[in-house]
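Researcher: We plan to redesign the surface later, but first we want a full-length starting point. Tokens attached.
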């Protein structure tokens, strides 16, 4: 029997928000973020907060990130277009968006965007989308930006990947 896939733990403290990580470690997250994994994280309620805090501090990050203002409506609209197939990166091929299923998942189902905002730290999100294979060489997610951060989509934001990816993040913040 081949080895079952297991999630990499290397970047957890940088990747996951403390409050979500603590809930997940304690067994309080009802959904399974990575549906393709065979196992399920057991609950360790009595140590969850300390483990989550230690993982965050391992990367020099605070327990709580600064509160963000409400999502910017202009960025949200641009982000919604950017995840789509018509003039976007076609993220919806692999990523579900709330109740809307991914359109054509191949060998690598991806996290539902509705779960992303509560899970991921802003800095990690940007580092990931700029160069996914630098973090996970085995990821199926393509790299959309060149080394200068420019994407193949000139509109919006003149192809400036960081601005486009922030628009996507702003949109994801609004997905329920």
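Model: Full-length starting sequence:
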């Amino acid at each position: 029997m081949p080895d079952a896939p297991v999630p990499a733990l290397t970047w957890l403290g940088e990747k996951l928000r403390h409050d979500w990580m603590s809930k997940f470690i304690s067994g309080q997250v009802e959904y399974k973020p990575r549906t393709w994994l065979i196992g399920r994280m057991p609950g360790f309620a009595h140590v969850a907060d300390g483990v989550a805090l230690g993982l965050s501090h391992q990367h020099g990050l605070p327990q709580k990130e600064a509160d963000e203002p409400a999502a910017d409506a202009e960025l949200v609209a641009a982000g919604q277009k950017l995840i789509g197939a018509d003039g976007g990166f076609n993220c919806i091929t692999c990523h579900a968006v709330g109740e809307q299923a991914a359109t054509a998942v191949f060998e690598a189902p991806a996290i539902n965007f509705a779960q992303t905002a509560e899970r991921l730290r802003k800095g990690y999100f940007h580092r990931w989308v700029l160069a996914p294979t630098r973090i996970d060489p085995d990821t199926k997610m393509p790299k959309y930006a060149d080394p200068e951060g420019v994407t193949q989509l000139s509109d919006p934001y003149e192809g400036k990947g960081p601005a486009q990816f922030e628009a996507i993040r702003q949109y994801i913040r609004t997905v329920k």
